[in-house]
Design goal:
The protein is α+β, with helices and mostly antiparallel strands. The protein has one domain: 2-Layer Sandwich (Alpha-Beta Plaits), CATH 3.30.70.100. The chain is built from 2 helices and 4 strands; from the N terminus they run βαββαβ. It has a 4-stranded antiparallel beta sheet, covered by helices on one side. It binds copper (II) ion (CU).
């Protein structure tokens, strides 16, 4: 499954690295492309292992705002 997650609050490469770090730690996430300019992450994941909600929560736990 591949989904775009819209994220508010990312301002620089450091923010991008933090989001990438959180995604890299999640079991079931296969690949991701985070763009500060486009304010989004495109995440490919195995929905049998991890839910979209869990991925969104991990991003929100960093202090960013996920737009639903
Ligand atoms: Cu930043």
């Amino acid at each position: 499954m591949k989904k775009q997650i819209d994220i508010n609050g990312m301002a620089c490469g450091h923010c991008k690295s933090r989001v990438e770090g959180a995604l890299s730690k999640l079991n079931g996430v296969k690949s991701y492309d985070v763009s500060v300019e486009d304010k989004r992450a495109i995440v490919e994941y195995d929905e049998n292992v991890v839910s979209l909600e869990a991925i969104e929560q991990a991003i929100e736990d960093l202090g960013f705002d996920v737009a639903y």
